[in-house]
Amino acid sequence: MKITIYGDSLNKGYVKSFYYLESIGKIDRLRYFGTKPFYYTLSKLKNFRNYTFKDIIYSYIAPFILLFSDDIFIVSPPPYS
Fold it and tell me: What tens digit of pLDDT does each residue of 2-33 get?
């Protein structure tokens, strides 16, 4: 099973259960994309938060990947307290 998660935050701690399922072999491939590419880019340029270039690039191309993908698609809004 292939799963793609499209989340509002690049904090992968919100979806730890999916990473656990991947580690024990229940999920073949897990991809996680962020939804705010401009925020990630500005944060990287201003040294506010150090996002990886891979995460930034994937957040720009994620909508296109999701349109043409046959993976199971999950939207993950972050919890707010």
Answer: 888 888 777 777 888 888 999 999 999 888 88
How far is 50 from 11, CA to CA, in rounded Å? 12
Structural contact between residues 4 and 31, judged by C-beta atoms closer than 8 angstroms: yes
CB half-sphere exposure, 54, CA atoms < 13 A:
2
Strand partners, 15: none
Specify the long-range contacts of residues 48-54, CB closer than 8 Å, at least 24 apart: 51/10
Decide: 11 and 80 in contact? Cβ < 8 Å: no
